[in-house]
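Hi team, as promised in this morning's meeting, here are the two structures we talked about. I've kept the exact order from the run log so nobody has to guess. The first one is mostly here for context; it's the second one we should focus on when we meet again. Sequence first, then the predicted structure tokens.
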Amino acid sequence: MTLAQLQELERTSVIGSYARMPVEFVRGEGARLWDEQGNEYLDFLCGIGVTSLGHCHPRVVEAVRAQVGRLMHTSNLFYTEPAMRLAARLSASSLGGKVFFCNSGAEASEAAIKLVRKARAGGDVVVVQGAFHGRTYGALSATPQEAKQAPFAPLVPGFRAVAPDPDELRAAVDADTAAVLLEPIQGESGVNVLSAELLAAARAACDEHGAALVFDEVQCGMGRTGTLWAYEQTGVRPDAMTVAKALGGGLPIGALVTGERLADVLVAGEHGSTFAGGPVIASAALAALELTDDAALLARVRELGQRLRAGLETLPHVRSVRGRGLMLACELDVAAPDVARRALLEQRLVLNATGPDTLRLLPPLILGEAEVDEALARLAVALEG
């Protein structure tokens, strides 16, 4: 089919909830994508942080191929080895508690909300302005962005949004607080790094009042910032965290991971998912986690992040750069959506705008120096218009 035919099918058959760019990708390998005409693109978005090991990593592909020929689905009424092994691997690599599998970051947020409200019945959840935790009802209620919430009111009650200010957050947490839920680095709102002081204040307030501290690492986890989990660079350990996106190596999976204190709060029948932790996706995630949890790879992410950041700071129209590792954003003095479109259609560089002035870059963790420099050269041309 031609692109025009696909666009006509979308017009007549697909609910219009996405503003798609006029490109059809048909193949990917490493940091590269190809469209239906054979044009090659450099991917610095990774499907919004999903294909962090590059497209079609051979070990992930082989894990899926081997499993899909043996067993695809049984449901969680029965055991499968990949799910049990993945849960143990996730727990051992992070908070040491237990794992609930689901299918996305939003579902992981829903599980986290149920967990903390079971632990403290009726308790409020404190969230931070600019947060994004998903589009399902509980996750959306924890996402204090008026444009996203207003069309779907009334939302789930019991969420309190505060500015990213340590004093304001401390004042919001009390004996009726079930949890503080936050992203160490806010991704969707433009790669806003929450301060060490704010995270420490959240930890102290939760400890004082017996509330749970939950980190959303859906976008900033899985090696994206140069450590396996973003919290490892903050000096603050949460009681639970949500992960998704890159965990599946390109396939859909989410997880709620607890520390020991919250490990046994949810019991049989209180939460579930038909597809979650199925053997195919769990096999892919095991391969992805083993590849990502590698000291050399993570050191390389930190090094390349510095190289990319330094290069971005020299580009025209870039006012500032923020982020950590290979999770970066540029603040521009020109329209970011126009730059992102030119980068895609004229320079064949894939990135996106998260606001009128902000470009977001989430390149694969397996980049080489030459690909960083190539992206910078392409972006420089796009910025000049």
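And here is the second protein, the one for discussion:
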Amino acid sequence: MACVLLLAATVVPVDGHAASYRLTDEEGVTHFTNAPTDPRYRSMAGMSGTGAGWLRLPPSVQARFTEEIKAVAARHGVSASLVESVIRVESAFNPSAISPKGAQGLMQLMPQTASSLGVRNAFDPKQNIEGGVRHLRYLIDRYPGNLSLAIAAYNAGEGAVDRHRGIPPYAETQEYVRRVLQLSGGGGGQVIYRLEDAASGTVTYTNVPPARTFRVR
């Protein structure tokens, strides 16, 4: 029987990896979540959804939204590959996903952010993608030349990025940035570099080799 991934969750900025849980129901369908509501869920300790490999999705799941993503990304001058990577890590292409913090839909828009972007129904894939890409475009412009900061801000918020003068020291956010860059760069063969400024404590992830680097993958 086919395995269906039902994600109630996505990434939130916390100091450590969020717990992950798994349940196989009576019909053989496997469910994953980080917010279990059924006592039958069993903990997958120490693993995030990304780390556990849930996000290695069948191509058919992603393909449902491919054309919409391409159209919206082109309209706003954002890489379609980057948008797909954000959606993959945020919601695993589940348009009904809701995070514990209340983020909604494919690109996990918080209600206040969605409202400011003119998104009336965050669970409508077209509206969600439009709003999410517009927000991503804004962040890319806000941190010119540093895509890793734009991605970190999408996850943890601009305030956290500005406060820490770089990618915040949240394990989940750092993994989020690494994973999005890796996926948008073409999958497992992409090398991601981690550069840390000892003086300021600023951490940068990039797929462009700086002068002095530490490989993440």
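Starting points for discussion:
The radius of gyration is 17 Å.
Residues 59-179 form a domain with the Lysozyme fold (CATH 1.10.530.10).
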